[in-house]
Every structure is written in structure tokens, then in C-alpha cells.
Amino acid sequence: MSNGTWLIVALVIGFALVLLSRRRGKRAAWLQREHMPDVLKTATLIASERLFRCEHPVALSGTPDQVYRLRTGSLVVVDTKRRRRVAVYDADIAQVSTYRVLLQSQSRFRHQSFAEYGYLRLVTPAGVRYERVSLWTPEQVIQLHRRYWTLREGLATPLGATFAGLCRQCGHRQRCGQARSASSSSAPLPEK
Fold it and tell me: Cα(187)–Cα(192) distance, rounded to whole angstroms?
């Protein structure tokens, strides 16, 4: 090869190395801003915003935000929520738990282990924060599913929200005989 050819090869390699270091620098900066847990930093993203459906153990469908394979081989579900402040609700845990049951039923993931926890990625004006949450068992998810459909079909009466603030944003507020007004106290409802 001529000197000119060697020079071109050296320039191409140098350019590629510069691009690679910039990319790594951008990823490092993103990871720092993201405050991602170490266990996820080293994990492999295997699904992102993909619709899944199943009929067994119950009919479910959903679109998990991210599914990661940890270095241990276990899969973990991450769901993003935009909030004014950092807050984790039972509904969030129910959703991530349902995603896990949904994914466990997929032939693609059937023989893989899933973590007993998931993460909520909470995006707030103060930044991003990951909250690790213990997930419900598949039996609890199935029970929730059955309760939901029993209520939808009018075969059971809703228990009502524990706090008035939960009623404020509820889509069933107009037809619920137990809905509490925003002006009512935030004290919990009495035990049933």
C-alpha cells in the first residue's frame, strides 16, 4: 500500500475512535443525569414499549416501558411515570406486577427467571429517580384482574378509596356512590 492509502486508513480509524469516545461520553453523561441504579446500568435492554398480549393465566395486554436482562440473567420490568413529586402508588406496583405476569406468559420469556422486584422511573421537575418496588405475586395479579371484571360487570360493590385525593382524579367518580368530594377531609375512610 502507498503512503497515501495508509494515511487514509489512519484517518478513518482515528475518526472512528473519536466518534466512539464521544458516544461513550454522551452515554456516561446520560447515565449520570438519569441516576440509573447500578444493576440497570450493566443490564441489557431486551424490550422497549412493545405491546404484549396473553390469554393465560388471564387475558392481559400491555406495553411495558422497558424490560432489562440483568447480569444474573433475571429479567426486570421498568415503568416510567411523570409526576410533580416522587410518589409511588399501589396502582403503579399493580401495573408493573401485571407486566411481569404478562411477560412470563410469552413463549419468548417462558423459561427465563424474573426478578421479584421492578423499578418505577419517576420523572419530576427535580429530575429522574428510580424507585425499586417489590412486585405482587401472580396470584395477587389474577385476583386483581378477577375483582376488576366482577366490578365492571356489576356483580360486586366497590370498596371506595382510602383517601379523598384518590377520588379526585378517578374516572368512575360520577357513578360511584362512595366518591368523596375534594373538599372532604383527607382522613382515611373507616374500615369496612
Answer: 15
In the three-class reduction of DSSP (H, G, I as helix; E, B as strand; rest coil), residue 84 is classed as coil
User: pLDDT tens digits, residue range 55-77?
Assistant: 999 999 999 999 999 999 999 99
DSSP-derived letter for residue 65 is S
In sequence order, the 6+-apart residues with CB closer than 8 A to the CB of 124 are 82, 83, 84, 85, 86
Phi/psi of residue 82, nearest 5 degrees: -100, 125
pLDDT grade for 80, boundaries at 50, 70 and 90:
very high
Assign a CATH topology to domain 38-159: Lambda Exonuclease; Chain A (3.90.320)
Residue where the block lists cell 480509524:
13
- Looking at residue 173, what DSSP letter applies? G
Q: Is the pTM of this model over 0.90?
A: no
